[in-house]
């Protein structure tokens, strides 16, 4: 599954919406879903009725003409504008699949891998078929709200197309049900999630200031989870500074910074995923004097003495203007890719009876792999045999540097890829249970013992901020000679809006200075220390680097007055509550703090939970309501109760405290209200 949910950066002034009519000519199953969703999942890879969730699709594109000069190619969209993150829907059925990778593309033809995102189609269809058939389809993208942009809609769309597509994204809107990734996260539905430098974590009282949202699904699979964000998740260009878990502030010059200015704009929740376009042509060159535009920057290639520009010259030319087009070119060795051939294998197919072992050397030393996995073999043949998918798993589990293994969709072919182009040497260690070796005569792998590296190089393009790489050329020498077309398979950094641009500070009551120092505080937080250095209470403000005393018991006497009343249980009289008058506040007076000090926990009550309400006769809980405190344990509560009695009033404000005791037989609580 791809991490890209949407790209708000697609929405640009005077840049038309891209909606392409296409004709699908071929659909080939590629991958099954690996993880069972409950014991009744009949469509995942381990089931006898498994269904594909990824396919390789080939289609031809009908160009879309428009009136903007700001697109990659002036006044038109074509096959080169199809990118990862786009969606394709059958024109008749409205079934939607997402483009997760692109194998090749020209102006007219595209071959790509698509995915039934979250297996929505699979479980909607009674037969588990997650994709439309060949024929007419429509390509579109999503806006920053996670909704499809379908204007102008091609005439090939059925009358029910719009309603079907919109319903799909209203049901599982990617911006309201945001998918994030963490290996073996262990989160459960209802967990509150925060972002920090280590990744995504379950929130605690100390980390709540960096809350992202609440887990609404603890999948799909063990490494992904879905959150309902507590604010809008956005991406934009230029990229958001800092690292995951950082607050991003508004600087004095209006730019964004990670330096604490006290004005928080965002919480960064995801670093950029770079856009990487890999060349497919060995030893590429390009005609001398060829001109193209890379993200709007004009680049002219030059060879030596009029000869074609070599791959190194192409790389140097592109990198000389990276600061403007934000793309870096690199010359990389051609990967050494080998595929198994079942023609000479012991069983007429790629597979063997575990356990067996072989050693691999691809430039990083010799690594022995013991083959014991039989999951694929059990599923395909009902026998404990290791076939390509099983072999690939065991090889990859050894984490051999730069060497990866994979299998095809039919699970008949094993592929090894050495990323640095090194020679791959394989040697037998232990034959299978029938005595057949991994390589050599009557082998079980279908691989050669030695495969030399190509010894050539290719060119890659990379944009580290996750933005798009747009290439336009009148004659497509660059695309044809390198195999690289425009693309956007990365993602800009993600950030969470911090409401109002300023975080809300909190007040924490602690017993002493040591407890204060153990707090995980952010700028603006306060700590009410019950016993400070002089044995009295003190109030401290965290300024981003240290605690600053802003008030204590002595200073409050000078500038403020405190109204106090105490309730001691039991209390005789009628009912389950008793009201005491705290005192009067003159017009212009301001309540600055309230302390509810439980010195003896309330016991012996019935019918409700003991609590304190503070207010007036007309509004008994105007300043403090009963959910804010609990008198059944020895603790001090400091509700946020700031209030100014208007100076225009002619009468004092009489403050009352009501103790909801519910017939408690024991308990003592003191209410202190401070005003200036």
Query: Main sheet, how many strands, which sense, barrel?
Result: 6 strands, antiparallel, barrel
- Helix proportion of residues, in percent? under 10%
Instruction: Let me know the average pLDDT.
Output: 89
Q: How are the strands of the biggest sheet laid out side by side?
A: 1-2-7-6-5-8
Radius of gyration: 33 Å
Number of strands: 44
Strand content: 35-45%
How many helix segments? 9
Shape: elongated
Alpha-beta classification:
mainly beta
Question: End-to-end distance, in Å?
Answer: 59 Å
How would you describe the overall organization of this protein?
With 676 residues, this protein is mainly beta. Among the domains are: 8-171, no CATH class; 336-451, no CATH class; 505-557; 560-675, Jelly Rolls, CATH 2.60.120. The chain is 9% helix and 36% strand. It has nine helices and 44 strands. The longest helix is centred in the N-terminal third of the chain and has 11 residues, at 161-171. It is elongated, with a radius of gyration of 33 Å.
Question: Top keywords for this entry?
Answer:
five-stranded antiparallel beta sheet; six-stranded antiparallel beta barrel; 676 residues; mainly beta; elongated; 36% strand; 9 helices
Concise summary:
The chain has 676 residues and is mainly beta. Among the domains are: 8-171, no CATH class; 336-451, no CATH class; 505-557; 560-675, Jelly Rolls (Sandwich), CATH 2.60.120. It has nine helices and 44 strands.
């Amino acid at each position: 599954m791809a991490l890209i949910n949407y790209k708000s950066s697609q929405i640009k002034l005077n840049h038309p919406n891209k909606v392409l009519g296409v004709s699908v000519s071929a659909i080939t199953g590629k991958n099954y879903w690996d993880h069972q969703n409950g014991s009744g999942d009949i469509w995942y890879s381990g089931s006898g009725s498994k269904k594909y969730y990824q396919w390789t699709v080939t289609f031809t594109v009908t160009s879309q003409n428009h009136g903007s000069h700001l697109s990659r190619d002036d006044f038109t969209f074509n096959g080169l504008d199809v990118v990862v993150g786009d969606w394709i829907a059958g024109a008749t059925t409205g079934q939607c699949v997402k483009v997760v990778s692109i194998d090749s593309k020209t102006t007219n033809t595209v071959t790509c891998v698509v995915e039934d995102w979250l297996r929505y189609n699979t479980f909607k269809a009674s037969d588990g078929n997650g994709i439309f058939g060949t024929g007419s389809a429509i390509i579109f993208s999503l806006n920053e709200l996670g909704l499809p942009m379908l204007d102008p809609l091609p005439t090939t769309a059925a009358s029910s197309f719009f309603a079907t597509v919109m319903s799909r994204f209203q049901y599982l809107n990617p911006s309201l049900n945001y998918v994030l990734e963490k290996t073996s996260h262990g989160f459960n539905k209802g967990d509150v999630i925060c972002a920090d430098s280590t990744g995504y974590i379950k929130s605690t009282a100390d980390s709540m200031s960096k809350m992202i949202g609440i887990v609404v699904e603890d999948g799909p699979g063990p490494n992904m989870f879905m959150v309902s964000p507590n604010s809008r998740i956005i991406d934009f260009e230029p990229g958001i500074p800092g690292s995951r878990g950082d607050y991003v502030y508004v600087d004095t010059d209006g730019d964004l910074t990670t330096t604490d200015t006290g004005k928080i704009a965002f919480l960064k929740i995801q670093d950029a995923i770079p856009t990487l376009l890999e060349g497919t042509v060995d030893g590429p060159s390009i005609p001398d004097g060829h001109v193209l535009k890379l993200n709007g920057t004009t680049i002219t290639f030059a060879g030596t003495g009029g000869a074609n520009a070599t791959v190194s010259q192409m790389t140097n030319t592109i990198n000389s203007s990276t600061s403007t087009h934000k793309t870096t070119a690199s010359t990389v060795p051609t990967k050494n890719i080998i595929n198994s051939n079942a023609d000479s294998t012991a069983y007429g197919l790629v597979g063997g009876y575990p356990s067996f072992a072989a050693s691999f050397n691809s430039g990083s030393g010799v690594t022995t792999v013991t083959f014991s996995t039989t999951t694929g073999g059990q599923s395909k043949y009902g026998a404990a045999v290791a076939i390509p998918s099983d072999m690939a798993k065991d090889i990859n589990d050894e984490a051999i540097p730069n060497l990866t293994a994979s299998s095809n969709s039919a699970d008949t072919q094993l592929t090894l890829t050495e990323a640095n182009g090194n020679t791959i040497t394989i040697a037998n260690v232990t034959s299978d249970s029938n005595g057949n070796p991994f390589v050599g005569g009557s082998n079980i792998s279908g691989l050669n013992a030695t495969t030399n590296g190509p010894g050539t190089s290719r060119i890659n393009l990379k944009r580290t901020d996750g933005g798009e790489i747009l290439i336009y050329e009148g004659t497509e020498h660059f695309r044809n000679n390198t195999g690289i077309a425009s693309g956007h398979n990365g993602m800009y950094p993600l950030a969470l809006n911090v409401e109002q641009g300023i975080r809300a500070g909190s007040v924490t009551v602690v017993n002493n200075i040591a407890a204060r120092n153990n707090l995980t505080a952010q700028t603006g937080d306060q700590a009410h220390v019950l016993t400070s250095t002089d044995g009295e209470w003190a109030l401290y403000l965290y300024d981003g680097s240290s605690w600053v005393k802003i008030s204590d018991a002595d200073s409050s006497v000078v500038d403020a007055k405190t109204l106090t009343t105490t309730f001691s249980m039991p209390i005789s009289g009628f009912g389950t509550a008793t009201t005491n008058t705290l005192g009067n506040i003159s017009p212009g007076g301001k309540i600055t703090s309230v302390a509810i000090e439980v010195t003896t926990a309330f016991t012996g009550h019935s019918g409700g939970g003991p609590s304190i309400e503070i207010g007036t006769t007309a509004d008994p809980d105007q300043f403090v309501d009963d959910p804010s405190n609990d008198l059944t344990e020895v603790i001090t509560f400091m509700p946020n109760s700031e209030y100014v009695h208007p100076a225009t009033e002619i009468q004092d404000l009489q403050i009352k405290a009501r103790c909801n005791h519910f017939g408690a037989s024991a308990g003592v609580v003191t209410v202190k209200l401070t005003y200036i």
